[in-house]
Design a protein that fits this description.
Helix 1 packs across helix 8. Helices cover 25% and strands 25% of the residues. It is elongated, with a radius of gyration of 21 Å. By secondary structure, it is of the alpha/beta class. A 7-stranded mixed beta sheet has the order 7-6-15-16-17-14-18, with helices on both faces. It has 8 helices and 19 strands. The mean pLDDT is 90.
Amino acid sequence: MSEVNSTCHIIGAGLSGLMCAFFLRRQGNTHHIVLYDDSSSCGGQVATFYHQPWGIRIDNAPHIIVSSNEIMREFVHDDEWEKNVLFVDSLNQSLSTRIDEHQVCLLRKICNSDLSEVSEALRRKLTDFVFPSRRYQPKFYTSSQNLDTRIINMLRCYGDVINHNCRLTSVDEIDGRVSKLNFGRRSVKLAANDMVILALDNAQTAKILRRTPLEKTSFITVSYYTSQRIFVPHNTSFVGIEDGAADWLVITPNVVTAFVFGKAKSFSTSDKLALHIWDEICRIRGVNSAFVPAYKVDKHTGIELSDVNNERRPKDARTQYQNLFICGDWTMRDYPCCMEAAALSAVRAVETLLKSTKQRKIK
């Protein structure tokens, strides 16, 4: 491999940006890697943060890794996979652990969206991806409030420099190449052989590259803090709910998080939604709770997984600039916005960058 003395500037130190640094180093690449992020920490949407009211560290939202994820499964130890998923019909309280009978419910969680908003092509591909054969039983891993220690802190070591509180506002161009990165009052001038990877969300990328942003969707999470882990039938961490206010529950040692994709508008306030979902949780547990634990309600935005949006996603990692490439889970056609898509987008961005500098591909 030829010697490289240039710098790779990675804008965004979320999962996809950190993965770019990881894959560059995995190749023994000699780029000097500099990461920039507009926050004071790394991780972006998969970061773990300290929640002062509860006195614990929690993830931005629970993230699930499926055993069919080719890249992210490397971060899960063999004894941490869980096979059991409980499905509950809230109308008659019937219970089932048959994943093959509840594929729609499972795909709803993987997409973090009501499937009425998801393109048919994406649904078919996801079904084949998660259930590659009738004999295959997918396994699951939830982050359990430790994505920083499990993934982010390891990945951040692959960057040579990390500059925090740097928000990219624009780029300057000379002869079809980015010549300068502008971070408000601060600018970074690029050398002739420098490369740039934009690992930002769709809205920020659209602004920098002067493109029309994709349509957004939203979902709600309601997280409850419990002094000890609660238990549901079959002692599982994953509960899919049919015909309930909540669509999914993810249970970790001190936090139970409910995902709500379509029925939040049925409740006049977030407090009424949280109280109703806690009643659902108690019925699943078969317990009459004397009180409602501390909770918080968060609204999350993502990319709508419609046919129109799917077609508008980038075909590859290239942009109008010869030395600037893009990545991020939203850039991957026919994939939900998830950790695996973020990692795959990093592979694609790095391979495209290496090809442009005549480097070899990732193995």
